[in-house]
């Protein structure tokens, strides 16, 4: 199968996880937060492994502009998620007073739409390097997709919007992911650039969006899950290599 269809299929699966996250928050107002946070911690570790050990070395090999683009990707998400948006964090939105102004939730949505666009770019770019890296990036992205859909859904509900708006916004994140896959597929020549840029985005999401949520939890188990995530990355990478990818 052509790498375009493979990355589109994996991108669609990741997008589906956004919708599942949105569905969780709309069917049940208070979800098992501890369970979601374990996913967040595991995902953060896996993402760090994928970004530092998979995407970064490959993009450095492809373009000498990689270090600059890594930084640019990191700062891009910092700008849209935390400079333009006045209140944004992963997980359940519990600060109703902070998100009541309509613009607050719309800026949070905008930030997440840009972030999810790069989720798609990273999946497609990984598959353009090879199936092994593509699968690794897909798992990294997929592990934080449910919390992502959950996050936007709960922001919408906390800001006074209805379940339909919460659902629609999580679907929008999924569509943005697929749009990222499509854009990356049509720019096949710029592989090193998009891999470096989306690695910077992934590092931001893991280290500056997810890890702070993990660190807010009491006890060491949640913090240990980050290491489990890195280990899981390593084992998956070894397994894929053994299978010939
Ligand atoms: Zn909040
Ligand atoms: Zn994401």
Write out key terms for the chains shown.
binds zinc ion, 0% strand, 9 helices, mainly alpha, globular, 245 residues
Structural overview:
- This protein has 245 residues and is mainly alpha-helical.
- It has one domain.
- The protein is built from nine helices and no strands.
- It is globular, with a radius of gyration of 17 Å.
- The protein starts with a helix and ends with a helix.
What is the number of strand segments? 0
What level of helicity do the residues show? over 70%
User: Strand count, sense and closure of the main sheet?
Assistant: none
Poorly predicted runs are none
> Helix and strand string, N-terminal first?
HHHHHHHHH
Strand proportion, as a percent range, falls in under 5%
Number of helices: 9
Bound ligands: zinc ion
* Dominant shape: globular
**Radius of gyration based on Cα positions:** 17 Å
Rounded mean pLDDT score: 93
State the end-to-end distance. 15 Å
List the helices and strands and how they pair.
Elements: H1 3-27, H2 33-62, H3 66-83, H4 96-99, H5 102-129, H6 131-158, H7 163-186, H8 191-215, H9 221-242
Short description:
This protein has 9 helices and no strands.
